Amino acid sequence: MSANRSTELPTEMRTRDGRMLPSDAITTVLSVDLLIQILDRIRDPRDRKSWRLVSRGFLRAESLHRRELRPLRRETLPALLRRYVALERLDLSACPSIDDACLAAVAAAAEGLKVVCLARANRLGWRGLEALVAACPRLDTVDLSHSVGVGDREAAALAEAKGLREIRLDKCLAITDVGLAKVAVGCPGLERLGIKWCLEISDIGIELLAKKCPEIKFLDISYLKVTNESLRSISSLEKLEDLYMVGCSFVDDEGLQLLSNGSKSLQCIDVSRCDNVSSRGLTSLVEGNQCLQKINAGDCFPDLESSFLSKLSCVKNTLTVLKLDGFQVSSSSLRVIGGSCKNLVEIGLSKCTGVTDESISELVAICVDLRTVDLTCCHHLTDNALYSIADNCKRVESLLLESCSLITEKGLERIATCCSNLKEIDLTDCGVNDTALKFLSACSELTTLKLGLCSDISDNGLAHIGSNCGELLELDLYRCGRVTDEGLAAIASGCKRLRRLNLCYCTQITDNGLNNLSCLEELSDIELRGLARITSSGITAVAIGCKSLVELDLKRCYSVDDAGLWALARYALNLRQLTISYCPVTGLGLCNLLGSLRCLQDVKLVHLSWVSIEGFELALRASCGKLKKLKLLSGLRDVLSSELLQMLQTHGCRIRWVNKPLVFKG
Amino acid sequence: MDMEDDTVQVRENSAEDTEMLELPKDPAEVKASEFIKGESSKEIPVESQQPELPENVVLQSLEKEEFIIKLAVGQQSEIIKNAILDGRGENPVPLLNVSAPILAKAIEFWKRHIDAAEGEDLTEWDKAFLGDLSQEVLFELAAAANYMESKSLLDCTCKFIADIIKEMKVEEVRDYFGIECDFTEEEERKMREDNAWAFEQ
User: Which of A58, A117, B78, B130 fits as disulfide partner to A143, beta carbons 3.0 to 4.6 Å?
Assistant: First the structure.
């Protein structure tokens, strides 16, 4: 932050239409200039929001200071853009109904934009993009991932922005080699490109890209049907640092050989799920790129040959992340890995067979700097493995132990004592008990705790967590059937920053539990599947109190009816994703909900047996323009009017039809 | 001794410039390097020789009170650095927006930072130094740091104030600054609504 700010501000405060702003109290104490300097050192977005409320001077400072914005609704956009005149980064992915007219208006109002995120803008087309490019000369980065309307014509419009350095077109299924060519020719300075899942793209497009855009540093061609020829083209990119090619099944060892030309620039490579790649290809990759820092070779081939593992010593100075999910590991493999790469910070052995306590202890004895250890589904591991990790890797922050069912609270006690930096631990399906939680509660930095399928967990364990883990952000209690309202009370009183909570099938929870949760203002994602005892009154409490509610799953909550939907429609104004499949709601409640909630974009409405055909027609019409994803029973496809379905499609809504039998569970 | 240190400092700058790795950001530095190059590459008659860099700098506050400090101490402020290095040798450097007691505090801060050992962590000292000041002096010091373009002092004072107010509620912030709320009820309501519904972060 330069100290020369005062030269950039106007000497008089004027609004955009030229009115003089009144001077106010705060400027006699501190100039707006200084206020901006102070605001710059306030990091927490909530603190910045309350800053605006202090006085006019503070509001003005904030208006001049703000460089990035993530609006939630289309209606308030014009006012926001008038106030924030210095915006550089705009994220419109949360706004429903962004279309060409809207984008054109936004661009005209915010000419200084450099970074624009338009992910999932299903209604956007080339006209809007043309307007954006024409109005914002400093445009640097555009993200159009998952926008179904984006195809070659849109790519051509985007290519007019010569200065673009980063473009994301992931999952823009309509993009072909033609569109890619337009972008490559139009933006020679391109440094970062994502074309994951753009299945129409072939070797020809990649070849042209590599010729025209020599500055590329980041390239994601995952899941494309490209062959070794594309890798030949890519190998000519001298500045390439990160290459993601997950699931490229048409690429094999010959292709990887082409990428191994002694490059000093390649740092990160992801070839996971490339079925035709073997040890030979990986070996040549490592020999040919000796500055690699991250390798992800998960799920490629089953046998991890020692020849490859010992070749890892070529990158021993730089390699920090190694992911080898799904491999068959021999007793010496991990020792060889440890010997080859002392500096590992992250190791991924998810779903690897043959991982034993001894091999883990050999690995961690050498790789003492490990921070992330993924041992998901390494079923044979016992507490001894945890002892080794705890004794050697004091800096461990993330420990993934899903399905390691032989571990007990003793191993976790050692981990909790030795690894005070522990932030994330996944104990899904491990069968841990309350004593384990007592030990884990000593980790006061814990942010993510997953206890799915641990049916021995009860309120006592949660009380321990609530007492010390004040930083907890995510708690997963999927099918922890012994948890009751008391446990929720303990969590709600101690973990005030909680954002995500999964209580699916914790069938003892009642409305009281939900009342307890209503004090958590940061709670944004709640999953309550199969809770037959909760009623609309509990939902009302949550809707009123959990002000940040964005995602709610109420599938199979057989006692939640229209009253619950009314409460959500009235209070949960930022709700974006909702599942009410199998709930006893009627057309009236549904219609009100879909009509009122302006942000609701993703709804699952399977087996709403009390909603009539007319009810669906009215409700879905009321939501038109906002919905982006909809899940309905396939039987409805024949009875809903084709006019409605057409309208939904034109407005950018993708419908998933499912065929599920009507079965009541629980 | 000091003279050698100061001229060495300037020569190092010129070495960077002659390599032309990047354009010098400060026009004053360009002039200094040209001066040095000129010195070493040709004989200059005594009359047209530019004044050598002084060992000490004299700063003049609002009340015309004078403070004498070493060059290295004063260079932590861009305004002072420019005034000396642009060759006009403006001495004393007039700092008409800064009153004497505030200037004294700024000098104290700069001195401590220049005297710090390599890699010494001064955060505790900074906190204690600023914590001792009254609120009025603290704000004036921040304003002075801004005016004198002293990045280290500005950074320190603003962070200190930011840390104080970030924990406070809106009303408490108003009390701290001694100001009233000047929004109408309607405006305040609209803004709270915006905070909740209009945008994230």
Answer: A117
Tens digit of pLDDT for each residue in A389-403? 999 999 999 999 999
Torsion angles phi and psi, residue A290, rounded to 5: -85, 10
Q: Using the structure block, give the residue that is written with the tokens 């993330």.
A: A398
Q: Compute the CA torsion angle A481, A482, A483, A486 (nearest 10 deg).
A: 150
Contact at CB, A29 and B178, closer than 8 angstroms: yes
Chain B CB contacts of A547 under 8 Å are 196
Other CB atoms closer than 10 Å to residue A28's CB: what's the count? 12
Please answer yes or no on whether A54 and B170 come within 8 Å at the CB atom: yes
pLDDT at residue A426 greater than cutoff 60: yes
- The verdict on a CB contact (< 8 Å) between A37 and B146 is yes
Q: Distance (Å, rounded) from C-alpha A274 to C-alpha A222?
A: 10
Of A267-276, A338-347, A356-365, B180-189, which range is least confident? B180-189
CA distance A287 to B30: 47
A551 forms beta bridges with: A525, A577
A505: closest CA of chain B, how far (Å) = 31
Q: Which long-range CB contacts under 8 A does B179-182 form with residues at least 24 apart?
A: B179/A25, B179/A26, B179/A29, B179/A54, B179/A55, B179/A57, B180/A25, B180/A55, B181/A54, B181/A55, B182/A24, B182/A25, B182/A55, B182/A56
d(CA A54, CA B188): 9
Q: For residue A264, give every residue at least 6 positions away whose Cβ sits within 8 Å of its Cβ, in sequence order, or none.
A: A290, A291
> Which residues of chain A does B165 touch, with a Cβ-Cβ cutoff of 8 Å?
38, 42
Closest chain A residue to the Cα of B144, Cα to Cα: A34
pLDDT per position as a tens digit, B152-163: 999 999 999 999
Show the DSSP H helices in A224-326 as ranges.
Answer: 228-234, 253-258, 279-288, 306-311
- How far apart are alpha carbons A190 and A139 in whole angstroms? 12
**Which amino acid, A275?**
D
Chain B: closest CA distance from residue A89 (Å): 13
Q: Shortest CB distance from B200 goes to which of A70, A76, A573? A: A70
CA dist., res. A616 & res. B116, Å (int): 73
Residues in CB range of A277: below 8 A, 6 or more apart? A251, A252, A253, A256, A271, A297, A300, A301
Are A355 and A381 within 8 A, CB to CB? yes
**What is the number of CB-based contacts under 8 A between chain A and chain B?**
115
Residue in chain B closest to A55 (alpha carbons) equals B181
Are A48 and A40 in contact by the 8 Å Cβ rule? The answer is: no
Interface subset of A 412-431, CB within 8 angstroms of B:
none
- Whose CA is closest to A560, among A540, A546, A544? A540
Cβ contact, residue pair B199, A39, below 8 Å: no
Q: Are A492 and A512 in contact (CB under 8 A)?
A: no
pLDDT for A421 equals 93
CA A33, chain centre distance (Å): 36
CA distance A378 to A356: 8
Cβ atoms < 10 Å from Cβ of A542: 25
**What own/partner pairs with CB < 8 Å and gap ≥ 24 does B151-157 have?**
B151/A2, B151/A3, B151/B76, B151/B78, B152/B76, B152/B109, B152/B110, B152/B113, B153/B76, B153/B77, B153/B106, B153/B109, B153/B110, B154/A3, B154/A37, B155/A1, B156/B109, B156/B126, B156/B130, B157/B130
Unique residue bearing structure tokens 């709670």:
A523
Residues in chain B, pLDDT under 70: 1-53, 87-90, 201
Answer whether 0.80 is exceeded by the pTM: yes
Beta-carbon contacts of A549 under 8 Å, excluding residues fewer than 6 positions away, are A523, A524, A526, A542, A543, A572, A574, A575
